[in-house]
Amino acid sequence: MKARTHMDQLENTTRTHAPCRSSENGRDLHIGTPFRHHIFLIGFMGTGKTTIAQRISTMFAMEMVEMDETIAQRAGMSISDIFETYGESRFRELETRLVMELQGKNNAVISCGGGTPLRENNVKAMKKSGTIVLLTASPETIHERVKDSHDRPILESNKSVSFIAELMEQRREKYESAADFIIETDGKSEREICEELAKKLTEGEL
Ligand code: S3P
Predict the structure, then answer these.
(1) Structural domain count, the chain
(2) Among 74, 89, 122, 154, which residue has the most ligand 1 atoms within 8 Å of its CB, making it the best to mutate?
(3) Residue 17, domain member (yes or no)
(4) Ligand 1 center–CA 74 separation, angstroms
(5) 152 CA to middle of ligand 1, Å?
(6) Are 39 and 102 in contact (CB under 8 A)?
(7) Is residue 97 part of a domain?
(8) Residue 7: inside a domain, yes or no?
(9) pLDDT tens digit string along 62-96?
């Protein structure tokens, strides 16, 4: 689960994770940083963006930015509290502001919020500054992954496969048109997903 409620203030900074060169199981590949641009991971809630971003940042010795965590750190409150106190539209503004700010940085792996690619301006900026990778999973898989968590206000009182399927369908076109490529995650281990992703990324780069 994301650490979104840390109260240490990081006002006016981007919340990042420095690349770490050794993985938790010591078996990830470390192949340096062949990228000059960002890698944006997009996708529905629960598709594993944060976990995969962490592993990819280790693999390629890249900085990682977890967008929701950055926004929560700066606001000094959780994403759920931002939604509750200021409303979703304020959260979307903070999200867009962060996307724009990231244009000034180089080659980070960025775990986006599930709603980040829904705004055209966000997608335009992301396309300009990096490669956009869509992670997908079935509504059943998503439901299984999110059913016991309480940090996603949009799903909080809607934790059913049918709600997830419907929202996913509404968002599908925007997700797919934003993506440079798509990785299906159902039935794959984190390691398999990262290897597939790394292969596609390096094929595109070299
Ligand atoms: C949202 C997804 C969340 C978070 C917010 C809204 C969405 O991020 O940004 O709760 O609209 O899909 P994750 O996809 O990282 O859970």
Answers:
(1) 1
(2) 154
(3) no
(4) 17
(5) 6
(6) no
(7) yes
(8) no
(9) 999 999 999 999 999 999 999 999 999 999 999 99
**Does residue 149's CB lie within 6 angstroms of at least one atom of ligand 1?**
no
- Ligand 1 centroid to Cα of residue 206, in Å, is 32
Share of the chain above pLDDT 70, in %: 82
Domain, as residue range, for 81: 30-205
Render pLDDT for 167-197 as a digit per residue (tens, 0 to 9). 999 999 999 999 999 999 999 999 999 999 9
Contact call for residues 10 and 102 (beta carbons, < 8 A)? no
- Whether residue 62 contacts residue 33, with contact meaning beta carbons closer than 8 Å, is answered with yes
What digits encode the pLDDT tens for the residues 35-56? 779 999 999 999 999 999 999 9
d(CA 68, CA 95): 8
Out of 2, 5, 68, 71, mutate this one to test ligand 1's pocket (max ligand atoms within 8 Å of CB): namely 68
CATH number of the domain encompassing residue 94: 3.40.50.300
Beta-strand relationship, 63-66 and 16-17: antiparallel
Which two structure tokens, joined as six digits, stand for 153? 């206000």
